[in-house]
Write a structure and sequence with these properties.
Layout: H1 9-27, H2 29-48, H3 50-59, E1 68-75, H4 78-90, E2 94-100, E3 108-114, H5 118-123, E4 127-133, H6 141-152, H7 159-171, H8 176-190, H9 200-209, H10 211-217, E5 226-229, H11 234-240, E6 264-269, E7 273-279, E8 285-291, E9 295-300, H12 306-322, H13 332-342, H14 350-355, E10 361-365, H15 382-387, E11 391-395, H16 403-412, H17 428-435, H18 442-467
Parallel strand pairs: 1-4
Antiparallel strand pairs: 1-5, 2-3, 3-4, 6-9, 7-8, 10-11
Helix pairs in contact: 1-2, 1-8, 4-17, 7-8, 9-10, 12-13
The structure holds 2-oxoadipic acid (OOG) and nickel (II) ion.
Residues 70, 72, 129, 226, 228, 296, 409 line the site of nickel (II) ion.
């Protein structure tokens, strides 16, 4: 069969993720320090908890536990976004979810390109949070026009990269030579450029409108702005960062520390001020600075149902009504205390989270039970099967993002002064039109995984019951 000669999209994604990691470590040395710290904490955490080690052994590749889970980029035009969709498809990454960041004062809307099936996630889970700048939210029409012209004039993909995407689409895949060329060509799109493509004066105007607008418009391409490894103990890494000469953001985003982790917790080190240069009208280069790139870590928990998510959102809002974390960290302790207190209303054991339909679970048959005891009536009801010990359930890990956390990460890199207000205007339809396809609904996806695991259990146990 012809497809036998193609390199699997999962393998291409793994190579891409490794190439991005090594490029970013070279470009941002503090990120290499963070990676080393994460690996150290993960090793310690695993040594201290054999139960965790066993559980991860089942579902993850332990030797790659500290590798990157995601990165993020910001693009400027619908054409760039839709070409990225085609690029990511070659690597088995598809758009999941819609995130409106305008709500939080950031003029972008976003999706995450990620592997979707369990098998693909297991080979390599790398995903890219991808934002599209919303020039329509810039009030100054002259500036908007200028920004659009700059963006329309750039080409963020190499000629070879485009040709290989077309080839993969036409033939259904890439052979191994093409796959490695593809990875190195695509890397070019995400590389840092220290020479801006706008003048210092225009940069300043863009920057005054919003720092993020300057970041997207002023450079030749959508440099990767952070990479994020997975930590098994985010509180420990947060505490250890200063000792390693890295300055973390004030508080960890997302839910508080819990026995049963939910959704996603994230923290980052602040973006670095880096030297860049701008060409003036005489063609001379002038030095300046730009702040965009940072490092982040994440810890993931169970995916929540719409009901669980509504409870999470309400509790987070309630906390923020009492206290908002200040960027300088001055009220961090009080914020963490308020957060933990408010979240007491969210059940913190798996049985209750399941019973109250707050989270999604994967069900599986317990091999050792004497399934012959089952009657066909028992075998048609999952709750009975669980009560009898014939079926077990494990949390399905949340593989997506959180708009409030994302906004917190954006904000910590923009500084307090930049929390400019934009009118919240979610525009999923517009985004999907620009993307060229609808995004996958994350809730429907998790619900489908859960249901499939239930069906599988019932199917396996029914013959046992009928035979009795
Ligand atoms: C993306 C921020 C969102 C996350 O982990 O929530 C994100 C950005 O700063 O471009 O990566
Ligand atoms: Ni991130």
């Amino acid at each position: 069969m012809k497809s036998g000669t193609f390199t699997s999209s999962d393998v291409i994604r793994a190579a891409f993720s490794a190439a991005m990691s090594s490029m970013y470590r070279t470009e941002v040395p503090a990120y290499g320090t963070l990676m080393a710290l994460v690996a150290e904490v993960n090793t310690k955490t695993l040594a201290a908890s054999p139960a965790l080690r066993d559980q991860l052994q089942e579902t993850d590749t332990l030797d790659r536990i500290s590798e990157e889970r995601h990165g993020a980029i910001r693009v400027g035009t619908p054409e760039e976004l839709s070409m990225l969709r085609r690029v990511f498809a070659v690597m088995g990454m598809y758009p999941v979810g819609y995130y409106d960041l305008s709500e939080a004062g950031v003029p972008v809307h976003s999706t995450a390109f990620r592997p979707v099936s369990d098998d693909a996630l297991k080979v390599n889970p790398f995903r890219v949070f991808t934002s599209l700048l919303r020039l329509d939210l810039i009030g100054d029409t002259t500036l908007r026009r200028k920004a659009r012209a700059v963006l329309n004039a750039r080409q963020i993909f190499t000629t070879k990269a485009i040709a290989l995407v077309e080839k993969a689409e036409a033939e259904g895949g890439l052979n191994s030579d093409d796959a490695s060329t593809f990875v190195s060509e695509i890397l070019e799109t995400f590389r840092w450029h220290d020479q801006a493509s706008v003048s210092g004066a225009l940069y300043k105007r863009l920057h005054d409108a919003h720092r993020l607008i300057a970041d997207v418009v002023s450079f030749k391409g959508p440099h990767i702005n952070h990479l994020t490894p997975r930590t098994l103990d985010i509180d420990a890494v947060q505490d250890l960062m200063p000792e390693h000469g890295i300055s973390p953001k004030a508080v960890i985003e997302g839910p508080p520390t819990r026995a049963c982790p939910i959704l996603l917790r994230q923290t980052s080190f602040k973006a670095l001020e880096e030297n860049v240069s701008f060409q003036n009208a005489n063609g001379e280069w002038e030095t300046g600075t730009h702040t965009a790139r940072f490092g982040e870590i994440e810890q993931r928990g169970v995916a929540l149902t719409p009901k669980g998510r509504a409870l999470y959102d309400r509790l987070l809002n309630d906390t923020r009504k009492i206290i908002r974390p200040a960027a300088d960290g001055s009220n961090a302790k009080a914020y963490i205390a308020a957060l933990s207190d408010t979240f007491k209303a969210f059940p913190d054991n798996w049985a209750d989270i399941r019973r109250e339909s707050l989270g999604y679970f994967r069900y599986s048959v317990v091999e050792s039970t004497g399934n012959s005891r089952l009657t066909s009536r028992d075998a048609s009801d999952i709750d009975t099967l669980i009560a009898m010990g014939a079926v077990r359930f494990d949390p399905i890990v949340y593989e997506d993002f959180l708009p409030v956390s994302a906004a917190g990460i954006f904000q910590s890199n923009l500084g307090d002064e930049a929390s400019q207000k934009f009118v919240a205007s979610p525009s999923q339809r517009e985004f999907e039109k620009d993307l060229g396809t609808p995004v996958l609904d994350e809730f429907a996806h998790y619900a489908g995984l859960e249901q499939a695991s239930i069906d599988q259990c019932l199917q396996t146990l029914r013959p046992a019951a009928l035979a009795s």
